[in-house]
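Please, structure for the following, as C-alpha cells.
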Amino acid sequence: MQLFQAALSLRPSDDEARAALYNSACCYVKLKQWQPAADAVVKAVNDHNLKLEVAIKDPDLRQLRERREWLDALEEVQGGLSTRALVGLRSEAKAPFRLTRLILTGGLLAGAGLGLFIITARLVAALKGGEGAPDLTETLKNFTINSGAVAVLGFVLYRDIQGGSRDKQVVEREESLARLQIQLNNDRVVPLAKFRGTRRPVLLAGNRSYVARAMKAAEPFREQLATRGVALVPIYLSEEDPDEQIRALRAEFSGKASGKGFAKTAPKLPESATVSKADQKWELKAYGTDEWIAWVATQLKAAGKAESGNAYIQVQLDGTVRSSGLGIPPWQKFIDDLAELDSVRTKMTDGIGPARW
C-alpha cells in the first residue's frame, strides 16, 4: 500500500497512476477499508480513464461491490448511474405515457389559453357595442367553450404533474430502502438492494413483543412463504416491551401470593452464535437500526399510518413497496397474492398481485 501511495506522489503517467490507484483499491478491499477502496476506483475512472467495466468484473473487488459504498461510488464515476437518474427512470416506468400526455396537454392548453385571450378581447368589444362590434351571443358562446377547455386541460395537466411528483417521492423512498444494510451470518454487511430478484422482504417494525408475535404467526406458513421468496426483517423500534413488563409483574404478584417471595426470572437461553443458511434466508438482520427506524417512520407517514407503532411493510422482488399496515401481517393473504419464485407469473410480472396500502 505504501508503495502504491508513493508511486502516486512521483508524477506518474496516466497508465502508472491508473495501475497504482486500482491496485491500491484492491489492497483496501483486502483490509476491509471500503470507503478508501471506493474512492480509489472513482479517481481511477474519472481522472485516469479506467474502464468501469474492469472494476465491475474484477473478482478482487467482489466484496466492495456488495457494499453500500459501491452504490455511492457508482453515482460519482463517469458512466455510472446516479440515484437521481434511476429515480427518474423508475418514476417514468410507473406511468410510461405521462410525458406524452404532458406534452400534448401542455400544447393544447397553450392553444386554448391563447384562444381565450383573443376571445376575451372580442367579448369586451361586444359588450361595449357600437358599429362593427362582434355578435355578443356568438362571442359569449366561444368564451364559454374556451374557458371550459382551459379549465379541463389545466386540471389534467395539474393532475399529471402532481402524480409525477408523488411517484418520484415513492421511488426515492424505495431507493433509500435499497441502501439500508443487512448483516449476514459471516459478518458481511450488504445493502438490501443485493436481495432484489431473490427476496420479498417483510419489515416487522415495533416492540419486541410485536415482532415475536408476528414471526410466530408466520411460522405455520413458513414453507409456503419461503417458496415465494418472503424473508422477515425484524426492526425493534424500542427496547422496552410493555407485554414483558406485565408478565414480570404478574409473576412477581404470583410469587408473593404463594409466600415464596419474588418470583425468580427464568434464565435466558443462550443465543446461538451462528445462524443456519435456511434461517438466514428466512430472517434478515437489519444493520444500522437507526437508519431503518427513520425510514420506517417516513414510509408509514407517507402511507397515512401512525408514525410510531407496530407495523409491517412488504417489499417486492424489484424493491417496490407493495403494502403496509398496522398489526400482524396477513400471512395467508400474502400466500394468496404472491406467486412462487419459479412460477411464470413471477418471471413475467414479478408476481406483484393486487397492491394494498
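The CA atoms of residues 14 and 47 lie 8 Å apart. The first strand starts at residue 181 and ends at 183.
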